[in-house]
Amino acid sequence: MSRTLAIHGMSAEAPRLPERRGFLASSTLALAALALGCTRRSEAAIAAADAGTRPATVSIVEFSNAGKRLQAVRVPRVVKTDAAWRRQLSPLAYGVTRKAGTERAFTGPLLTEHRKGVFRCICCDTALYDSATKFESGTGWPSFWRPIARENVVEERDRSFGMLRTAISCARCDAHLGHVFDDGPKPTGLRYCMNSAALRFAAA
Question: Burial level of 103, CB count in 10 A (0-12/13-18/19+)?
Fold first, then answer.
């Protein structure tokens, strides 16, 4: 996750500065407003500008709360203004999902969630992990050995703090979820180390 404690092979995250993309986008919008005499823009216009050249739709797989695969669909990408995300999310969820921050280890309510069900994105409700793949990693964050569908998550290189890691985000709304490491159990050998604040548990 954001900051790794390499001493004992466990990862611990710390809040990160706003993403460069978000900073540049906000700076550009601010300059544009000044050039237009500080003309106010609608939130829809700001969100559209932030979307940039990314595809307007994404392909994901839908699942029931019992983890049953329903269908592959192409859906609109969820893009909102920073203000809209702040209104929708708790301060912690906003800091984690929209600013790539973290919750403190062993504090997330989903760490001890063991019922049958699906863990969904707190921002857009996309299915992300099946409870059948959850395991106790001892790191202090909910851990899974694979996502519920490859299509539903995005992997990106994260070079923050002088390290090279793989960050995981929601494919539909770009919410930061956590990181994936190669010290997980069989059959994948992977550990998807997620923030409770980025997830919503839907019981079967």
Answer: buried
